[in-house]
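We store chain and fold; example below:
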Amino acid sequence: MFKRICRCTKPDSLLKALLYPWDRATSEAIVYGRQHEADAVAAYVKLLQARDSSVAVQETGLRVHCQYPFLAASPDIIVVVDGKEGLLEVKCPFSKKGMTCEDACSDRNFCCRLTEKGAELKRDHAYFYQVQGQMAVTGYNWCDFVIWTEGNAPGDPPHLHVERIEFCEKF
């Protein structure tokens, strides 16, 4: 929603979307994402622990901006990595089951693109706006953006991509 608000040219349609949201909670993709969010968080924690990092995660609900109470966000997780607090935003794309994030980047509509460093969240994608908005509301300076997909076959390990997104005050 942060991207729609930032790029709004028709306030009437935005207001309608805010007041009368379409209920997507039962779509197959949303159900899949919710079913696997805990798997993604567990894989993220396991990955960081394998790198000898101390990790703690805490679920959170709606967070309201202390100075601008008309702004709010619902981050997936508050995370503490080696004593530093940040956010964790998890995506489990139903349409990319069995693909690595890098392979999924071949789809031009995917949220990430390939760079020399690997997959990177597109800076003009709604998820980038979401993450920046969450950090602005909560006051955290970074968010680990995680993409989790199932392995290619039953029993195969899942694919996990983690990108640390820094807060951009100018954004």
User: Anything to note?
Assistant: The first strand starts at residue 55 and ends at 59. Residues 13 and 89 are 27 Å apart (CA to CA). The chain has a mean pLDDT of 89. The chain has one domain: 2-166.
